[in-house]
Structures are given as C-alpha cells and as structure tokens.
Design a protein that fits this description.
The structure holds two protein chains of two kinds.
Chain A lengths: L2 H8 L15 E6 L4 H16 L7 E7 L5 H15 L6 H8 L2 E5 L5 H18 L5 E5 L6 H10 L11 E6 L6 H14 L5 E4 L6 H11 L13 E9 L8 H26 L8 H14 L5 H7 E7 L1 E3 L2 E3 L17 E6 L11 E6 L6 E8 L16 E7 L3 E9 L7 E9 H4 L7 H11 L5 E2 L1 H19 L7 E5 L6 H8 L9
Parallel strand pairs in A: 1-2, 1-4, 2-3, 4-5, 5-6, 7-12, 8-18
Antiparallel strand pairs in A: 6-17, 7-13, 8-11, 9-10, 11-12, 13-14, 14-15, 15-16
Chain B lengths: L1 H4 L6 E3 L4 H11 L4 E3 L3 E7 L4 H12 L5 E9 L6 E12 L6 E12 L2 H10 L8 E5 L9 H4 L4 E4 L7 H14 L5 E4 H4 L2 H8 L14 E8 L4 H14 L3 E2 L7 E5 L5 E8 L5 E8 L2 E7 L5 E8 L7 E4 L5 H10 L5 H10 L4
Parallel strand pairs in B: 2-6, 3-4, 3-7, 4-6, 7-8, 8-9, 10-13
Antiparallel strand pairs in B: 1-5, 5-6, 10-14, 11-12, 12-13, 14-15, 15-16, 16-17
Helix pairs in contact in B: 3-10, 9-11
The chains are: A alpha/beta, B alpha/beta.
Chain lengths: ~525, ~350
C-alpha cells in the first residue's frame, strides 16, 4: 500500500495524481487460459483496468493452454466472454487496442519444450512491447497441474529475472486440502519462487468492504477503546448463499463447506476484524498481525469438536418460493454423501484483546438469502435506569456482500410521554453514498500484483496456520468414533436446529439477516 | 410530491424562515420510498441571469454520483431593491443496487440587492451539519471578499479559464485563503481539465529506467483550443514545477522558455488548434518522442512513445470531458490539498 507513495517520489509527474498503486509494465502469463476463471474473471478484469486507464500501455497477456488455437482465435473467444462478463460495456476501439496485447501459447503443461518456446516468446515481447522483462505468472489451472507448471518454469529459468525486472506467481485457491497438502504445495511453489515472489489470491480480500474493515477500525477513534473483551459480547460472521452446488458437485464432494469457505475466506475476514493495529500499512506488517490472530485461535481437541462445530447438509426445500432438490439428489453427488453444505462454529481467540469473547461463524448453501456479514455485538447497558432489560444491545454490522455497507443499532426513546425505548438502525450503504461502482475484486488484486503490493494476498504462514486449525475439525469428523452427526436442514432454512442450539446454550442467538 | 418528481425544476416556493420545516415535510411525504443522502454541502454561486435553472440541471446530474445538499444561488447585486426568494426540491435517482430511490435535496435562492450582506447568512443557516462545505463560485470574484464567508469554506471551486485577469483574480482567491488561515483548498476546474492528460503523460515515466529522460527533455508542444491558452500554460507550469525548471521571460505569447537545473533551455510551443481544450501534447527527450493526443472518437486519449527504430504502440486511455458536470464530478472525487496546482501556478503566474 505504500508503494504508490514511493513511486510518486521517484516519478515527480505522479505527485498528487492518485494514491493508488501504480502497475508496472509486464507480461501476464495465464496457465489455464481457456478455463472458466480466465473467461469470467481475469480477462474482464484486465479489460476493465485498461478501459479505466489503470493498465500501463506496456502490459501484455499470454494465454498458455493445451488446445490448438491462433492468437486471433484466442482474442476473438475472449472478446465474446468479456462482452458477457465485463462490469462495464465493451467499447470496440478499446477492445481493439487491448486485444493487440493478447497472445496465445499452445503447450501441454508438462511439455518442457513448450516452456523454452515461451521463454523466447516472452523475450521477443519484451523487445517489441517494452514489458521490461517483468513476468506475472497466473496459475489458473487445476491445482494438480501446479507442480509441473512450476517445475518447468524453473527449468526454463522463467522464475529468474535480470537486474531491475521481476517475476511473480499468483496462486489461485484452494491452497491445499489440509495442512500436509498445503505444506507440500508451498514447498513446490518455494522450489521455484521465493515467498516475496508468491501471491496467494483470496478474492474476498479484494472486496471493497473487506478493505474497509481496516479503515473502519483504525481511522475512527471511537471504536478503538471499545474493540475488546470489555465491551464486546460476541462476534458473528455469516456467509450465506441461496445457491446449491451447481456444477461444482465433484469438487464440493471432496471439499465441503469447512474447507471451501471457513479455512480461507471466513478466517481472513476474522483476521481483519480481530487483528491488532499494524505498525504501518506495508504488506508484511498487516500480514504479521493477521497471522497472530490465526495462531491465537483456541485449538479444539477432537472431543471438543462436537460441542463447538455443527455440520449440516441441505435436503429438498424451496428458495425464493421455487422448489429445489436436496444435496444428495444433485448430479454427481453420492446418494449417501456425508459432505457438509453448512457449518456453524464457536471459536475463541486466546489473546488479551479477545479473551472469552465467542466468535460464531456460519456458512452454508441453500440458505434463505445470499449475504456475507460480520456483526460485532456489544455488551448490554446495565438495566438500572430505565426499568427495562435492553435485550437488543448495540450491534455494529459490516456488510461484505451484497449491498456493501455498515450499520449500527442503537437505542432511542420512542416519542411520547412514556419512557419507551426501542432499537433503531443507523445505516450506511456504499451504493447510496457513493455513485461510483467499486472495481471487481480481481481488478484490484491484479493491479496490486502488477505493482508488487502483497497486502491483500495470503502469506504462507497464514495459510498453514489456518489449515492447522481446520484440520483438527476435519480429523474429528473423519474419526468414526468421535464423528459428530451430520444434521439436515431443508433448503431455504437457516441451517439445522443444532446450529441454533450452539448459541442457545450460551444464552445467545444468531442475528436475523 | 411535485418537488421530488420534477428533478429539473426549482421545486416548491418556500418562505425563507420555513425552509427546514418544508424540507422535513417533503421527506415525510415520500413515506420511506426514498432515501435522502448527503456527503457534502455544495453551494453554487452565480451572478448570471437565469443561472438558477441552468445550475439546477447541473446539480441534478452531479448528484447522481455525488449525493449532496445543494444550495444554489443566483445573485443580482445591482438590483435596486432587496429581495430574496427561495425554493426547495430534490434530485432522485435509482441506486446502483436498483432497490432504492436516492435523493439529494436542493435549496435555491434568488438574491437581489445587497448580495454581499445576504450571502453568508443565507449559506450558514442552511448547511447540513458536520458535512464539508464546498463553494462553487461561477464567474469572477469581487472585492471585498467577505472573511466571514471564507472562514467556513473547506474547498472553493472556480474555473480560471473564464477569468479575464488571472493575476488579479488569483490574488483575491489567495487573500480569501489567507483569511481562512490557509484552510481552504483551491480547486480550479481548469486544472481538473488537465487531470487525464497529466496522468497519461506521467505513466510514461513510472519505470525507474525511464527517469533519465527527464534530464534530456528539450522541447514540448501543447495544442490548445481557442480560449484555452491558460489551460495550456498551466500544463507547462506543471511540467516546470515538477521537474524543477525555472521560467524565463516568455519569448512570445505562444513560446515559453524554461531552464532546467543543469542550465539547459527547454522550449515549449503553445499552438492554437480547433478541437478539445488540450488536443495534443508532444514531449521530446532527445531521440524519444512522447505523444498524448485525443483519439478520433473524442473521449479517449491515444498515448504512444516513439524512438527511432522502434514500433509505435499506441494505447487508449480515458480522456476528460470538458463539460461542467464531468469536471465537477472529477473534482468531487478528488481529495487532497492541491499543492501541485499551487506550485504549477507559481511557475507560470506571470504568463497566465
């Protein structure tokens, strides 16, 4: 985050023009260039950056994939998908210039000669387009292809650069499926790229509201004295989806809600909410504080898992009034599948700030509405003045998606001669206050990677610590003796009753969304 | 609710003393279907005849992206009798999420007679509390500048391109700034006009390997439209201020000369051409030519760098639009103290 300032010091013409990070000339090589991620997210994001003038002229894109294709054929396919998925309409003249910088490189991921040819091609592009030997490799292929790709990049010396230029790699999630596989993946990446060269992408961190958590906490002095166990009763994080598994059943059967959402997205959000103030806004200062939060999570023993974690699976029901089938009836799902589509957890951060404050998380598919929100529930005011137990304490809500914003519930006197007190909500909506639409998460993250700002990317130790926490739960589930039940909930409900009981036992309830 | 639905009219005529009450009534009538939003108090002051209607239309467009409490004032300071008329209205649009009508409220005033006396009280009594106060002053400033008014302003917005006498006007603005103990940020729409071309030129020099080119710049050419010489001069001032060039006495109205820290001359030619306010900028650094030009399609800039033996690779970037709504929207998006602007002005003050 501080690189823009540094850049403006060196380029005097940049002073005062913008505070955002400045992307450097480079070639972006996308492995898995014909896949869904490239089509739906990466190319539309790069096009939008170009259309907004945020992409320097000397940025080129090389798609690396197996299928036979010409540069023009590839460009034409990308134009079609960009017109479909771009957040702003595609303008012919901008696309034409943008497309001139896109190339296709056909090769098997395991073919050594393909990488040698890639190296020559990148050198040629550097000379013709002024990309200055900078390379950003984007691993958008399936994780089982990461090892051959990284190995061959190293063999072709593409992980090294001349003085003054750089090579970076963006690794898409999932970063492993457990601690052992994450460590193995990190080892594979480290064999070819240093940690400073590695950018692990979690698109949740690219969202405007996720970034705003830091601003809310550290730019508003009113919250600082309250943000601790003395004033906060509990924290809830909800990531609800109305969608089922759609076309991802094969992946989801192996993964489940805990690995798919909690290990990465939800723990990342928790880190932003719970971290100590960083010493500065550099990537490592922020990530140092985040990793301390994950390290401080109270590890559950296998026997404690059942009391603190509820797993559920949706059965048939209705979403927005339309009947939907149950998870086990979905295509490519085993009829006796034990995969969880819902998980609720109670966890604790054992540090000075958060001692004894329960953190409740829930994530699920086929819930009544799609919403990702964090709520900070403050302690109740003493019931000594108004002859009333103020049962709805102050709640600060950070809405991540959709309808990004922040709200605060406070108590107010109802007009009249009696002393009636009711909760009211003060509400801030990004969409209402700011007319300009936020960029897509991938736009921000790609720009950051091009400018060498790793703040919004996960570091190796963060990922491994998160897996260490989640693995205990997975292991308890896998061990038949202690395996907790899989509870069922009808599609369109807020999960199994046992998830409500998890909070009810503490005298609390899930926030109504 | 006629005032809410008619977003381009002055709305409901109201008594001065009842403005807040009438506004409250207006929102009560909307029965929760609309959300009032405001990030800033934006006062617009004009002495042009019939400016109220024109500015109401501008505010309606600006409010789509910058919710505000607008205070639109038309003043006829030469009128014989003192008179004040007021109206209230709201500008509503559907939010990005498509679920709500978002509304900005506008209070309009027609002042006749002793404008200078009336202006501060009119403005002060209708500010939305705790929000910043931006004053968009259309036209020329006059003496005396009321210190009472300026003490409250956070940003004063003006367009120096319309000024007859830049130096005299700038002196007035700077005196107002001094009255306010330097707190006011000076926002010149003529400077905002240059944002995109400055951005387009700056990006050529982002890579440290290109920085040696600064010391080799020997000439530049700026093409400007009739009436926009001051915009071109301001651009030259920006280059000079940021690259530590010292202005020499102008060789002619269209030829400026600067001296760099090494004592080399840099000549800047200002060329009048029909078209966009700044239609093309060429910067020469020995064998490399940097070009920023408006593309044929108008709202894009074509940027390219040419070196002998190298292929010119033009790239398109967004261009600024030279209409008040776009310029104001751009200005309202920006923050900061505009130090760079003040340095640019100081470099070319004598030739503006």
């Amino acid at each position: 985050m501080n690189r823009a300032a540094a850049q403006s010091e060196t380029n005097p013409l940049r002073e005062g023009l913008s505070t955002r990070t400045v992307a450097q000339p480079c070639t972006i090589v996308i492995f898995g260039a014909t896949g869904d991620l490239t089509n739906r997210k990466l190319i539309p994001a790069l096009y939008n950056l170009a259309a907004d003038g945020d992409l320097p002229p000397a940025v080129t894109i090389v798609g690396f994939a197996r299928r036979e294709k010409s540069d023009d054929g590839f460009r034409s396919e990308l134009e079609t998908v960009t017109r479909k998925f771009s957040r702003q309409p595609v303008r012919d003249e901008i696309w034409k210039t943008f497309a001139q910088s896109i190339f296709y490189h056909q090769s098997e991921f395991g073919d050594e000669s393909g990488y040698k040819k890639l190296a020559s091609r990148l050198d040629k592009i550097d000379k013709e387009y002024g990309t200055r030997g900078n390379r950003l490799f984007y691993l958008a292929a399936s994780p089982d292809q990461f090892e051959p790709i990284l190995k061959h990049l190293k063999a072709a010396s593409l992980n090294e650069t001349c003085k003054g230029s750089w090579a970076r790699v963006i690794v898409e999630k999932p970063f492993g499926t457990d601690l052992a596989s994450a460590r193995e993946l990190n080892r594979i990446v480290r064999n070819s790229f240093t940690e400073e060269q590695t950018y692990r992408i979690d698109h949740f961190l690219g969202k405007e509201t996720a970034q705003n958590i830091l601003v809310l906490r550290f730019a508003n002095a009113i919250f600082a004295p309250l943000w601790n166990t003395h004033y906060i009763d509990q924290v809830q994080i909800t990531a609800a989806e109305t969608l089922g598994v759609e076309t991802r059943a094969g992946f989801y059967e192996r993964t489940g809600a805990l690995r798919d959402m909690v290990q990465n997205h939800l723990l990342q959000l928790l880190c932003l909410v719970a971290m100590e103030p960083p010493t500065d806004l550099s990537a490592d200062s922020i990530r140092d504080e985040k990793v301390k939060v994950v390290r401080s999570l109270r590890r559950l023993s296998r026997s404690e898992v059942a009391a603190n974690v509820v797993r559920g699976q949706y059965t048939e029901g209705a979403i927005h009034g339309d009947p939907v089938i149950g998870y086990r009836q979905e295509q490519n799902v085993k009829p006796d599948s034990q995969t969880e589509t819902f998980v609720a957890l109670r966890l604790y951060i054992d540090n000075w700030r958060w001692a004894d404050v329960p953190i409740y998380m829930r994530v699920g598919k086929r819930l009544p509405k799609s919403a990702t929100e964090i709520s900070i529930h403050f302690k109740k005011a003493p019931a000594v003045l108004f002859n009333k137990d103020l049962s709805d304490p102050n709640v600060l809500v950070i809405r991540i998606q959709p309808d990004e914003g922040i709200s605060l519930r406070i108590h107010a006197k109802v007009p009249g001669t009696s002393f009636r007190i009711e909760p009211v909500k003060m509400d801030f909506h990004y969409g209402t206050s700011f007319g300009k639409a936020s960029p897509e998460a991938y736009e921000r993250l790609l720009l950051d990677a091009m400018s060498g700002d790793a703040t919004l990317f996960a570091r190796r130790d963060e990922v491994e610590e998160a897996w260490a926490f989640v693995d205990v739960i997975e292991e308890a589930w896998a061990a038949k003796k202690d395996s907790p039940d899989l509870f069922f909930y009808p599609a369109g409900s807020w999960g199994p009753e046992e998830a409500d009981d998890l909070l009810a036992r503490d005298g609390r309830a899930w926030r109504r969304l | 609710m006629p005032a809410i639905s008619e977003t381009h009219s002055l709305g409901i005529s109201v008594e001065i003393g009842k403005i807040e009450k009438e506004l409250k009534k207006l929102w009560e009538q909307s029965e929760g279907a609309m959300t009032r939003a405001s990030l800033v108090n934006l006062a617009v002051y004009s002495e042009a005849l019939d400016s109220l209607e024109k500015n109401t239309q501008l505010i309606a467009k600006i409010a789509e992206n910058h919710t505000c409490r607008a205070i639109v004032i038309e003043a006829d300071c030469n009128a014989k009798d003192n008179r004040v008329e007021a109206w209230i209205s709201a500008h509503c649009h559907i939010s990005r999420t498509g679920s709500k009508q978002i509304c900005s409220e506008q209070i309009s005033f027609l002042l006749e007679g002793l404008c200078a006396n009336l202006l501060p009280s009119i403005v002060f009594s209708h500010l939305d509390s705790d929000l910043p106060f931006y004053l968009w002053w259309q036209g020329e400033f006059h003496e005396p500048m009321d210190p009472q008014l300026w003490a409250w302003v956070d940003r004063v917005i003006y367009d120096s391109q319309t000024w007859e006498d830049f130096q005299a006007q700038m002196r007035l603005v700077e005196s107002a700034q001094q009255e306010a103990k330097q707190r006011i940020v000076l926002c010149d729409l003529n400077w905002t006009r240059l944002d995109k071309v400055r951005f387009a030129l700056a990006q050529f020099f982002d890579h440290p390997a290109s920085h040696h080119r600064f010391a080799k710049i020997d000439k530049a050419r700026i093409d400007f439209a009739p009436g926009f010489r001051s915009t071109a001069v301001l651009f030259a001032g920006w280059l000079a201020a940021q690259l530590n060039w010292r202005a020499e006495k102008a060789r002619s109205e269209h030829k400026l000369r600067f001296i760099d820290p090494a004592g080399r001359n840099i000549d800047i030619e200002l060329r009048e051409r029909a078209g966009e306010p700044i239609s093309q900028i060429m910067l020469n650094s020995r064998e490399v030519e940097f070009l920023v030009a408006h593309a044929q399609c108008g709202d894009l800039l074509e940027v390219s760098r040419r070196k002998s033996g190298e292929k010119r690779m033009p790239q398109l970037m967004p261009a600024a639009k030279n209409d008040p709504v776009s310029l104001m929207s751009e200005e309202l998006m920006r923050g900061g103290p505009h130090h760079v602007y003040l340095r640019a002005v100081n470099c070319v003050r004598d030739v503006l």
